[in-house]
Each structure stands twice: as C-alpha cells, then as structure tokens.
Backbone:
C-alpha cells in the first residue's frame, strides 16, 4: 500500500463509481480497477461490493477511508510547506523588535533559531511599537515582538512574558537607599527619557496622567543604550522594563521597582495572519520558553 493507491481508493470511495473516479483522477478505468485490486490483495480484505451500477464500500473500506483522508491531507500540507524551498536554498524571516526588549531577547533568540532552522535568514529590525504594527499590516514584517495588546485592529498576539517598569538611577542618587519608589515620588524626579514615539514613554505618561501628574522631562534621547551610558554621569533617572537590566551590568546604575501602583507590562508576539504564520509563531514561542517562564530579577514571580 502506498500514498498513490490510497488516493485512488479515496476517489473511488467518494465517487462510488470507477468511471467517475477514473475521470477525476485522469486515469483509464482498467488501470484504476487494477490498482484497487492490488490494494485489496496487499491488505487481504475486500473493499467494495461490486454491482452493475455502483460500488458499495465494505466495513473495511469505511475504516480505511477514515484513516486515509487525514494521511493524504497531512501529506498535502507537507508538500505545501516544502514549496517554500522550491528553487531557493534559503528563506527569510523578518522580525520587528522594540528597542526596549531587544537586548534581553534577541541574542539568545538568534542562536536558537540558527540551531533549530539553519535554512532561515533572520532579519531583525529595531523599531518603535507603532512602526512594528504598521509594517505588520503592510506585509513588510512577518512577526513582531512588542507590548500587548496591539493597538491596531487586524493584529493578533500571543503573550511571551510579563515585565514591569522600573526606575533606573545613578548609584549616587539621593534615593539610592530606597528599595522601591512610588509613582508620585518618581513624578517629581528630573528624567532622561526616550522620545514620545516610544511606547515605554507613552506608557509612563499614561500612568502619571492617571494620578494627575506629568513627567519632569529634563532631556530626551532616542537610544536606550545611550541613556544607560549617560545616566551615571548625571543626577537624572529614567524608566525602563526591568528585564532590560540583563543587557547591562553597570554597577554604577541602580534599578528600583516602582510601586503604588506597579506598572505591569506584557510582551509578546504580534502578527497579522494566525493561520499562515502558525509555524513561525510556534517556533518562536517554543524557542523562548525559558524567557516566558523566568521571573523578573529582583521581584517575586507574578
């Protein structure tokens, strides 16, 4: 028994007539009848009761049909997946990542993708949240890693992990002995922040607005790395996701949890077509499993 014989059998079973099945398969009737007899011989069962007008499937035929259809559908899905490789040695995967989650996520993700899917060429774009969503909608990105939920209709998401905003300050700052800093205290501090196009900045402003406050912005930069490099030479503070701490080991900077209230963040995969991108979504989800389950450093798991 092979896949070709199964395909012939399914056609005969569904048509109930060798002539119609042969026409559907673009075969001659004698050739199709011979293949069905070979199948019956190899299985040592009778699949059809033959009458002058139609073929009646036996109980064995019903059993075989219930197994054959999923097998044939699975084979077709496999062929469809492999058509991506026809005529090309490599395939690209374009991922848009927020600057504020990039350093703690991308390096380990790249190496894991290389090992799991060596044929892939991974293109990483460091973007703002709004630009990630815009490029997903126009098709220039395959998938995004961003804060949830997406703001644009037509996009879907899958949670990867939870984080929260923390206050980052130089080790010489007057609040260096505080274990936590309240939002009201933080609102009074002169700040070095990412620009207003960055989602972290927008989230921070929204939190303060809920308290009737506005951030005390002393300076702005468009690079998280440059902000972290600059803080130790100032008396300013900034707010960043707690996991960004993994990207820098500067002993001259202190990371303080915010409280009253905490500012939780959800980071996940953002995509447009869940069905078409199911394989990519599952690949990234599985490769980042330990990131999803690891607690935020310095805080109890949520």
Residues:
């Amino acid at each position: 028994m092979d896949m070709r014989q199964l395909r012939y059998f399914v056609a005969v079973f569904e048509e109930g007539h060798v002539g119609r099945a042969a026409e559907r398969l673009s075969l001659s009737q004698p050739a199709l009848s011979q293949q069905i007899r070979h199948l019956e011989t190899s299985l040592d069962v009778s699949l059809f009761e033959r009458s002058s007008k139609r073929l009646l499937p036996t109980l064995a035929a019903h059993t075989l049909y219930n197994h054959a259809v999923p097998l044939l559908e699975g084979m077709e899905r496999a062929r469809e997946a492999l058509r991506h490789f026809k005529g090309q040695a490599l395939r690209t995967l374009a991922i848009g990542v927020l600057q504020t989650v990039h350093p703690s996520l991308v390096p380990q993700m790249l190496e894991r993708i290389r090992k799991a899917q060596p044929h892939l060429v991974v293109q990483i774009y460091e973007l703002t949240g709004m630009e990630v969503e815009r490029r997903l909608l126009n098709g220039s990105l395959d998938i995004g890693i961003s804060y949830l939920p997406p703001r644009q209709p037509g996009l879907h998401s899958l949670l990867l992990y939870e984080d929260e905003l923390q206050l980052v300050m130089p080790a010489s700052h007057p609040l260096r002995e505080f274990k936590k800093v309240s939002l009201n205290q933080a609102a009074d501090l002169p700040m070095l922040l990412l620009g207003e196009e960055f989602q972290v900045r927008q989230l921070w402003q929204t939190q303060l607005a809920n308290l009737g406050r506005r951030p005390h912005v002393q300076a702005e930069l468009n690079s998280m790395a440059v902000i972290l490099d600059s803080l130790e030479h100032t008396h300013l503070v900034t707010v960043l996701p707690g996991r960004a701490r993994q990207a820098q080991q500067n002993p001259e900077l202190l990371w303080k949890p915010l409280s009253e209230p905490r500012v939780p963040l959800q980071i996940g995969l953002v995509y447009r077509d869940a069905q078409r991108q199911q394989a990519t979504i599952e690949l990234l989800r599985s490769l980042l499993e330990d990131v999803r389950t690891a607690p935020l450093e310095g805080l109890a798991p949520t």
User: Anything to note?
Assistant: The first strand starts at residue 48 and ends at 50. The longest helix spans residues 59-82.
